């Protein structure tokens, strides 16, 4: 049984600045998940970065909330062909988190509560390109959108922005995550329409 279908049946592409090829503009926020929505109590939430040598650094929710946070506005693009422009978030930059970790790794595997994983090159998480977000549009991030916290990597298709994130494993070699192992593209650049292997 096939897990992926190339026939997403997207809408006709609108002529809108900032819209990648093959995308249509949405003003709502569609909810798409690989499984049931986990409900994570804040007193059980923990985010851990594990290095390629096995060392780790963790933050509980209170420690994470004490870190410097940023407000930012970005466009997001889903592999199912919707794009939402000008979304506003608040979160902690991966630059801030990685300052506390010693690593020479080039690759990462992002892990979530519920077992979801996705691979993201290290360079795509640094230099102001990615955040662990806990607010959307001025409100606490709803569980169906990945709350209490999710990764946001806006320059890649949104399946790379893992919901319910709880850690990042740093790696010397690239490996596929959940959707990548099922045939999605290993990188996922929306401007190059890298939806599936071979795109």
UniProtKB/TrEMBL annotation:
Record organism: Paractinoplanes atraurantiacus
Protein name: DMSO/TMAO reductase YedYZ, molybdopterin-dependent catalytic subunit
Region named Disordered: 1-21
Domain Oxidoreductase molybdopterin-binding span(s) in chain numbering: 35-179
Origin: domain of life: Bacteria
Pfam families: Oxidored_molyb
CDD domains according to UniProt: arch_bact_SO_family_Moco (cd02109)
Transmembrane segments: none
Gene3D superfamilies assigned to the protein according to its UniProt record, in alphabetical order: Oxidoreductase, molybdopterin-binding domain
Entries under InterPro entries matching the protein: OxRdtase_Mopterin-bd_dom, OxRdtase_Mopterin-bd_sf
């Amino acid at each position: 049984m096939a897990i992926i279908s190339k026939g997403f049946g997207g809408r006709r592409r609108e002529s809108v600045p900032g819209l990648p090829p093959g995308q249509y503009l949405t003003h709502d926020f569609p909810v798409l998940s690989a499984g049931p929505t986990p409900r994570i109590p804040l007193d059980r939430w923990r985010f851990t970065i594990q290095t390629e040598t096995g060392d780790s650094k963790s933050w509980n929710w209170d420690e994470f909330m004490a870190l410097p946070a940023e407000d930012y506005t970005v466009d997001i693009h889903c592999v199912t062909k919707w794009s939402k422009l000008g979304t506003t978030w608040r979160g902690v930059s991966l630059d801030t988190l990685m300052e506390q970790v010693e690593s020479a790794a080039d690759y990462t595997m992002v892990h979530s509560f519920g077992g979801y994983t996705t691979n993201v090159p290290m360079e795509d998480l640094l230099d102001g390109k990615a955040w662990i977000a806990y607010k959307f549009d001025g409100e606490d991030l709803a569980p169906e959108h990945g709350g209490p916290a999710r990764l946001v990597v806006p320059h890649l298709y949104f399946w790379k922005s893992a919901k319910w994130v709880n850690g990042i494993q740093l790696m010397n070699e690239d490996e596929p995550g959940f959707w990548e192992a099922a045939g999605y593209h290993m990188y996922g650049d929306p401007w190059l329409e890298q939806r599936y292997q071979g795109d």
